[in-house]
Design a protein that fits this description.
91 residues; alpha+beta; three-stranded antiparallel β-sheet; 3 strands
């Protein structure tokens, strides 16, 4: 019986696929099942652009970025963020 217990290997947990990065710490590594983010939260958008949350809300109000609501969350599309940064670069 002792030989049997010594020869057993511990089970490895299954890979996590489809979980949002919101619940997992970001380690800078990519998993096999990655999907480009289509939208950012208000906080993340503000951090990416280096501005405050109130500025993001002003950009939404003036139509300079596209916002979508999912439940209570407001998300900013990454395409509108890219568009905003490209038009600002040309000014």
């Amino acid at each position: 019986m002792a030989d049997f217990l010594n020869s057993c290997k511990p089970l490895e947990p299954p890979p996590i696929i489809g979980k949002s990065s919101r619940h997992q710490p970001h380690c800078g590594t990519q998993t096999e099942a990655t999907m480009d983010e289509l939208a950012y939260s208000i906080n993340r958008t503000a951090k990416v652009l280096g501005v405050g949350r109130s500025t993001i809300y002003k950009l939404i109000k003036t139509g300079q970025v596209d916002a979508i609501k999912i439940g209570t969350r407001t998300l900013i599309t990454t395409t509108s963020i890219t568009r905003l940064t490209q038009t600002r670069r040309e000014v």
